[in-house]
């Protein structure tokens, strides 16, 4: 049994200065590195050497922002799930000599997995259904390709933006309804899949 | 030893802790960023004068500094310098009616000095955004004002008067004329109701018409008052010098408030 660490429970707080230091370091060495490897202008280098165009509002930005947006949803449900794992399971595991990490991975997470999974699905649902954040952060460009440095437009945003301007019963109008149908099918299939997986998880770990 | 450490899972705990602290730093950093950007609305930056000079010409830019960044010189287009680093500032010059834009990038290549001009005047206006410049004269009905006080206190007094008149106007237009409009609308609906119920007799119509005329004459009186106030509010104007040396006239009616110069 290893000695109980003095940091136990405070690891994240202890690492905050380290993270801040890394951020400071990154901002300071980014310019010299850019100068050294990318002729001082990463954006130009990317488009000249790799043929990647860079938009100011791109998918990478949206990814980060959506990450921020879904943190609260996922966090509150997942936290609840982890704390509702019965204490006797955790104590028993620790008493049998498992380390903290082993207890976490083999006992706590499986027991909480149905709820954790639905937390993640709620987060996904939030992200998929989001219109405004994506609309504002992607530049709302209808042309897109697979590059993460380019703007895009989601189906939901496309419908919201174009429906007021589409002539009733025109091709445009019908295309928008098709887009809505695809969006619905996507969400439907996704949610059904999630529900099936959640049920299987629950059946498997309900014996704990 | 190290294998034991790995087996116990401690590294993974630290990895998780790292992820949590990155998330915390990111969230609080974002909050801090939003706060800083938002608060600059209530506590505007100091107005600086940037003095530029090179072999051919010299010029001065008067502006609030919004942000600055340092870039390697060879990546910045449209400057002569090619070696070393260049610092560029995003500054808010205001004066959109004169310069065509509110913000501007300036480079420190020809920057000689920067200071805080003491008698700079910042005006918040009804149209065209902020004005930055030096007060040179106060006019009344197109004539320069001669007075025993300093120019600045003369200006402040007159601005006070203008804002009082503006409040009166707002009250007249919003509350008094607004309430007349409301009553007129009620009358119209009343008439419509009677019409739909088939109860619109001649006497009822006459009564409504009478009330309407009473309201209308009330409105005419108020209109006279407001046009008198408009005449008063348009009395004063100022002359001010902008950063390139030219002078402009600003009607005081267009000024909402001023940032006081450091005196």
Task: Describe this structure as you would to a colleague.
- The complex is a heterodimer of chains A (about 210) and B (about 260).
- The longest helix of chain A has about 35 residues, at about 170-205.
- With about 210 residues, chain A is mainly α.
- Chain A is built from 8 helices and no strands.
- Chain A is flat, with a radius of gyration of 24 Å.
- With about 260 residues, chain B is of the alpha+beta class.
- Chain B has helices at about 1-10, 10-40, 95-100, 150-195, 200-235, and strands spanning about 45-55, 60-70, 85-90, 105, 110-115, 120-125, 130-140, 145, 235-240, 245-250, 255-260.
- In chain B, about 10% of the residues are buried.
- The interface of A and B includes residues 23 and 44 of A.
Brief description of this entry?
The complex is a heterodimer of chains A (208) and B (263). By secondary structure, chain A is mainly α.
Summarize the helices and strands and which ones pair or pack.
The complex is a heterodimer of chains A (208) and B (263).
Chain A lengths: L10 H27 L4 H9 L8 H25 L3 H9 L4 H30 L2 H6 L17 H8 L8 H35 L3
Helix pairs in contact in A: 3-5, 4-5, 5-8, 7-8
Chain B lengths: L1 H7 L1 H30 L7 E7 L4 E15 L12 E8 L3 H4 L3 E5 L3 E5 L5 E5 L4 E11 L2 E2 L6 H46 L5 H32 L2 E6 L5 E5 L3 E5 L4
Antiparallel strand pairs in B: 1-2, 1-5, 2-3, 3-4, 6-7, 6-11, 7-8, 7-9, 9-10
Helix pairs in contact in B: 4-5
Q: Descriptors for this entry?
A:
A: mainly alpha; B: 263 residues; alpha+beta; six-stranded antiparallel β-sheet; 5 helices; 28% strand
User: What does the average pLDDT of chain A come to?
Assistant: 84
Per DSSP E runs of 2 or more residues, the count of β-strands of chain A stands at 0
Order of helices and strands of chain A: HHHHHHHH
| Low-pLDDT windows of residues of chain B | none
Strand content of chain B: 25-35%
The parts of chain A where pLDDT drops under 50 for at least 5 residues are none
Instruction: Give the integer mean of the pLDDT values of chain B.
Output: 85
In what range is the share of β-strand residues of chain A?
under 5%
What is the helix content of chain A? over 70%
Identify the overall geometry of chain B: flat
Number of strands of chain B: 11
């Amino acid at each position: 049994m290893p000695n109980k660490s003095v940091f136990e429970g405070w690891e994240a707080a202890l690492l905050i200065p380290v993270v801040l230091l890394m951020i400071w370091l990154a901002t300071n060495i980014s310019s010299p590195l850019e100068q050294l490897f990318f002729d001082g202008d990463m954006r130009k280098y990317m488009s000249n050497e790799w043929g990647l165009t860079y938009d100011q509002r791109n998918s990478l930005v949206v990814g980060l922002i959506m990450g921020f947006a879904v943190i609260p949803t996922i966090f509150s449900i997942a936290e609840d799930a982890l704390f509702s794992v019965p204490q006797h399971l955790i104590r028993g595991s620790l008493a049998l000599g498992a380390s903290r990490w082993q207890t976490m991975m083999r006992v706590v997470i499986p027991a909480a997995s149905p709820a954790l999974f639905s937390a993640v699905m709620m987060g996904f649902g939030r992200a998929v259904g989001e219109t405004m954040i994506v609309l504002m952060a992607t530049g709302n460009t209808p042309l897109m390709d697979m590059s993460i440095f380019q703007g895009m437009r989601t189906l939901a945003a496309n419908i919201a933006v174009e429906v007021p301007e589409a002539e009733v019963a025109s091709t445009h109008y019908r295309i928008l309804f098709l887009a809505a149908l695809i969006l619905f099918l996507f969400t439907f299939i996704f949610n059904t899949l999630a529900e099936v997986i959640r049920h299987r998880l629950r059946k498997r770990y309900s014996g704990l | 030893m190290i294998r034991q450490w790995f087996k116990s899972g401690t590294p993974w705990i630290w990895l998780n802790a790292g992820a949590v602290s990155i998330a915390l730093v990111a969230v609080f950093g974002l909050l801090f960023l939003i706060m800083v950007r938002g608060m600059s609305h209530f506590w505007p930056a100091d107005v600086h004068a940037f003095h530029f000079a090179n072999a051919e010409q010299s010029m001065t830019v008067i502006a609030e500094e919004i942000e600055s960044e340092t870039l390697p010189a060879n990546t910045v287009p449209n400057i002569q310098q090619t070696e070393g680093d260049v610092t560029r500032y995003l500054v808010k010059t205001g004066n959109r009616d004169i310069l065509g834009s509110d913000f501007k990038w300036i480079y420190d290549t020809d920057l000689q000095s920067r200071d805080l001009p003491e008698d700079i005047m910042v005006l918040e206006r009804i149209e065209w955004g902020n004005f930055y410049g030096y007060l040179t004269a106060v006019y009344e009905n197109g004539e320069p004002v001669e007075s025993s006080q300093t120019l600045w206190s003369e200006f402040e007094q007159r601005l006070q008067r203008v804002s009082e008149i503006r409040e009166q106007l707002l009250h007249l237009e919003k509350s008094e004329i607004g309430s007349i409009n409301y009553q007129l609308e009620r009358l119209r609906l009343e008439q419509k109701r009677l019409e739909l119920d088939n109860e619109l007799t001649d006497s009822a119509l006459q009564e409504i018409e009478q009330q309407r005329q009473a309201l209308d004459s009330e409105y005419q009186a108020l209109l006279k008052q407001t046009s008198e106030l408009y005449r008063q509010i348009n009395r004063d104007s100022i002359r001010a010098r902008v950063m390139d040396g030219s002078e402009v006239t600003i009607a005081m009616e267009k000024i909402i408030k001023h940032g006081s110069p450091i005196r």
